[in-house]
Specification:
With about 170 residues, the protein is mainly alpha-helical. Helices cover about 70% and strands about 0% of the residues. It has helices at about 5-20, 35-40, 50-75, 80-105, 110-130, 135-160. The longest helix has 26 residues, at about 80-105.
Length: about 170
């Protein structure tokens, strides 16, 4: 028997992430040469671009599984599930909307503030999940660690490029 609820819980964060990634089109890779992201000054500890796709797939799948555990332990969409699953949805929206702010609109400083809001929302979600099922921490902790790293990376890129002249972009 196929567990459609589990499949949906695993797929939802990934589908949103893939849709969010569409806003990066032409900003990270460009058939005409260097894309906007390539022109940014980045720290030596910036991961190669290919790391982000697999990392986010694993993280989205893990947090999706954690949401499934909460859903099951609360008996579905019940009053007990309202706060943790609402916090999950809120942090997903923050997560999915970060990419357009950073990559499409090139608002690196605003993206950092957006990331701080995401960090807080993901932390609150993790705590609420943990209060329902302790095992969810195994799936949310890697996400929180990655967000901490991503926050540091976003901040550093912002500071390194604060006084760099803007590269013209035909999309903006």
């Amino acid at each position: 028997m196929v567990n459609w609820k589990l499949i949906g819980a695993l797929a939802l964060p990934n589908v949103g992430g893939w849709l969010s990634a569409l806003t990066m089109a032409g900003q990270v890779r460009s058939p005409t040469g260097k894309a906007w992201y390539d022109h940014l000054k980045k720290p030596s500890w910036n991961p190669p671009k290919w790391v982000f796709g697999p990392a986010w797939t694993v993280l989205y799948t893990g947090m999706g599984y954690a949401s499934y555990l909460v859903y099951e332990d609360c008996g579905g969409f019940t009053d007990d599930a309202l706060v943790p699953l609402s916090l999950f949805g809120a942090q997903l929206l923050f997560n999915w909307t970060w990419s357009p702010v950073f990559f499409k609109y090139h608002k690196i400083g605003l993206a950092f503030l957006h990331m701080i809001a995401l960090d807080v929302a993901a932390g609150a979600c993790t705590i609420s999940f943990f209060n329902v099922n302790k095992k969810t921490l195994y799936f949310m902790a890697p996400y929180l660690c990655w967000l901490a790293f991503a926050s540091c990376l976003n901040y550093t890129i912002w500071k390194l490029n604060e006084n760099v002249p803007k590269i013209p972009n035909k999309d903006n």
